[in-house]
Design a protein that fits this description.
NADP_OxRdtase_dom, single chain, NAD(P)_OxRdtase_dom_sf, alpha/beta, globular
Length: 342
């Protein structure tokens, strides 16, 4: 496992981050979740990502339990705040009240005195940005948070936060962004990536496998494989159904010879692809089985030649989405993905 700096901060993160969205506390049993985390540790993963909203706190609890016997300074724990964690009017957003209460609740569930990275899960239009940034800065001053990040913010939103933090003289600044990014969904490339590169903000990208579609296991004209996320319970099938289109599935199968050429599995190729830009610090993988963690972690340290990257673009062609206005939207099926496969 290799490590990269998180933007221009002094924090190093593993190239592969283990994340537990839609898995721990929801999709997989506790014992399997613990085994997946152990597989990540065995593979050299040191960075772990979760959120207070994942399984309404259960995901943080499982992660905390799994890491309780690990030397705290040997891992980097990231969590998030903003999305609804209850039915009350203050159980969501980036108000000072919700940030403070959510941070303390996350620390209790994770069983730690601090988190390495605390991220605004989405932008909050209802709360003055000054209020949110001061609250985050106070948590840093208190030692409960070491670094700050955002997730799925637009370039203007990130730019405004940086400007306000400087105007207020805050000690802490945004050093990380967690966007959705993969071979198909590249909406951060026109605006977000250039801004973050200028400002020293590292990318910790999620969904490098596009909900498993880029693994090639979903094939055109064939039944969905048993024991996959698309046929599981919970919310996973709803998200995966957004990216199951005949044309897309056909094109993904055409990537298989390119993976073979690189000596990689389809999943490893997809994860390695996201790690090619220097501005990407880490790629988040999830898993429902330990062997998936072991396989995907092998994408760390892989450098793909320019001609292979060009071939990937040629295969996917017009299916690639670079529309920057779709930042903060869930990846969804484009109309052309639903055309009958050739």
């Amino acid at each position: 496992m290799e490590h990269r700096r998180l933007g221009r901060s002094g924090l190093y993160v593993s190239e592969i981050t283990y994340g537990n969205w839609l898995t721990h506390g929801e999709l997989v049993a506790r014992d399997t979740a613990l085994a997946c985390i152990q597989a990540a540790l065995d593979a050299g993963v040191t960075t772990f990502d979760t959120a207070d909203v994942y399984a309404q706190g259960a995901a943080e609890q499982v992660l905390g339990d799994a890491l309780r016997t690990v030397r705290r300074s040997s891992v980097e724990i990231a969590t998030k705040v903003c999305l609804p964690t209850g039915d009350g009017p203050n159980d969501r957003g980036l108000s000072r009240k919700h940030i403070m209460e959510s941070c303390h609740a996350s620390l209790r569930r994770l069983g730690t005195d601090y988190v390495d990275l605390y991220q605004a899960h989405r932008f909050d239009e209802r709360t003055p940005l000054e209020e949110s940034l001061i609250a985050f800065d106070d948590l840093v001053r208190q030692g409960k948070v070491l670094y700050l990040g955002v997730s799925e913010w637009t370039a203007p939103q990130i730019e405004a936060a940086l400007r306000i933090a400087a105007d207020l003289g805050l000690r802490s600044r945004i050093v990380a962004n967690q966007p959705q990014y993969n071979m198909l969904w590249r909406v951060i490339e026109p605006q977000v990536l250039p801004l973050c590169e200028r400002e020293g903000i590292g990318q910790v990208v999620f969904q490098p496998l596009a909900q498993g579609v880029l693994t090639g296991k979903y094939q055109p004209g064939r039944p969905l494989p048993a024991n996959s996320r698309a046929t599981s319970g919970g919310r996973a099938p709803r998200f995966i159904s957004r990216v199951l289109g005949p044309v897309l599935l056909d094109r993904v199968q055409r990537l298989r010879p390119l993976a073979d050429e690189a000596g990689l599995s389809m999943a490893q190729l997809a994860v390695a692809w996201t790690l090619q830009p220097d501005s990407v610090s880490s790629a988040i993988i999830g898993a429902s089985r330990p062997d998936q963690v072991t396989e995907n972690a092998l994408a760390a340290g892989v450098r793909l030649p320019a001609n292979l990257l060009a071939k990937i673009d040629e295969v996917l062609g017009d299916l690639i989405d670079r529309d920057s206005t779709k930042t903060a939207q869930m990846m969804s099926v484009k109309p052309e993905w639903n055309r009958p496969a050739p």
